[in-house]
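Q: Here's a chain of 175 amino acids. Please give me its 3D structure as tokens.
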Amino acid sequence: MRFAILESRAQEFSRQRPHVVIPREVLDRIAELEEASPRELIGMFTKIATYADLTKKPVTIEFAEDTISQRGSPTKKTGIEDIQKKTAEFYKLDVRDLHSKERSRRVARPRQIAMYLARELTMRSLPEIGRRFGDRDHTTVLHACRRITELCSTDQALRQEVDFLKQVLSKPKGA
């Protein structure tokens, strides 16, 4: 059944892009992923087929193995809560401080950095980010992002702090 799903996708893909051929052994290897749902199987196939289409390179079992081994780890989805927690921890604040109305620089700058990171590392809208930071307006988030971008261009220490937080937040869990 799993192989049949992948085989039909491969035939459909090859009809649209005749130069892309996914070997049977690659389809077999994807189908062997017992813990993967049908949706994940199709996603894995699509990733491999798209790579072949874009690079015009043949798909090898080695490439398929690399893709499968990266499953779930390389692009850890970072949530706003993770960003708030790590930013608060880094600046020795409580997450509640990032939600508060306090405007002192001790709290406001880390809040702006967290908003900036939320915009950079998540697919959330400005209004959504604002809601997650004490029900702030989207223009407040926009101002924070612009301010941090501007400060990073002139303040080397701040840029290093922001880069460090980005790096920490981009690491897969457990790494």
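Q: Can you summarize the key feature?
A: The chain has ten helices and no strands.
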